[in-house]
Design brief:
Shape: globular
Radius of gyration: 16 Å
Number of domains: 1
Strand order of the largest sheet: 3-1-8-7-4
Distance between the termini: 40 Å
Strand content: over 45%
Length: 126
């Protein structure tokens, strides 16, 4: 099986975690070919999508459109019976940083018990 997942890192983390969360913007069953440092426009992204019976479903709420740049492209082989998965992840960075607080606020309001603001590690944490 093959999957190409497009992710956007936002300054949120799962409760109790120390790393920023990545939110899936899109998923394909083919390589969309985006490479590092390429620019792309994302239209109508929903950050409250969920899986129901294996299918991606969008919940009600605002949609966001933004310009982004590909900051990483990674390949993984996930051994998972009965179907192994070859996965390409493409991580985006939003170019318009002013829109990030609005998206973060929407996610925290929609799923309040799951996410909290990301706090970068301090010297005391190391």
């Amino acid at each position: 099986m093959f999957k190409c997942s497009v992710l956007l890192r936002l300054p949120l983390c799962l409760r109790g975690e120390r790393e920023c969360a990545e939110f899936q913007v899109a998923e394909y069953d083919f390589d969309i070919g985006l490479q590092e440092e390429e620019f792309v426009r994302v239209n109508n992204a929903s950050f409250t999508r969920t899986r129901v019976n294996g299918k991606l479903v969008e919940s009600e709420g605002p949609k966001f459109s933004f310009e982004a740049m590909v900051v990483s492209r990674k390949k993984f082989i996930n051994i998972k019976l009965p179907n192994d998965v070859f996965l390409i992840t493409i991580e985006l960075e939003m170019l318009d940083k002013e829109q990030i607080p609005e998206i973060v606020s929407h996610i925290k309001t929609s799923i309040p018990t799951v996410y909290e603001d990301y706090q970068p590690p301090t010297e005391d944490d190391q």
